[in-house]
Amino acid sequence: MSQFMEELKSAMKEHIEFMSDLVERSSGELRTGLQPAVDIFIGFFHAIDWKEPWLIGLISFHVALLLTTILSRKNINFQMCLFLVALAGVYFAENINTILASNWKSFAGQNYFDPRGIFLSVLWSGPLLIISIIVLVNTLFSLCQLMVKWKRAELKHKARAARNKQE
Asked: Which family does the record assign (predicted)?
């Protein structure tokens, strides 16, 4: 029995060492692979003049929309309208990018609107998609609560019907 336990301990120790080495190598490769992306991401945000009034307005809009989403979490119909408006904003992002790219001199200090729409995707569509996900999760949560209420009411009804049948 003790020999079996020693073999088991030895096998477990080898397995733990193997897994530790695997995790260490994987995390090292992941850090090395993600470093250029992190550098580009940091460079992207440093290239933006965050004091431009239209950018402050855009961020304020997203904050107001997020607060509206959170404060209206009990009103599912309003939330569905918000969800559709947010997704419509994402849908029309390409058109918005085209319009803003041709008129950037009238409101911005530099042209942020490249043909691929990266800037607008990050600062317009990204927050709208996050808000849409919040609305969707809230709707699913409300749906689960409604299903629980419905099942409880159904069980109470069945119990009442069974009690009335016995009497």
From this structure: Belongs to the TMEM18 family.
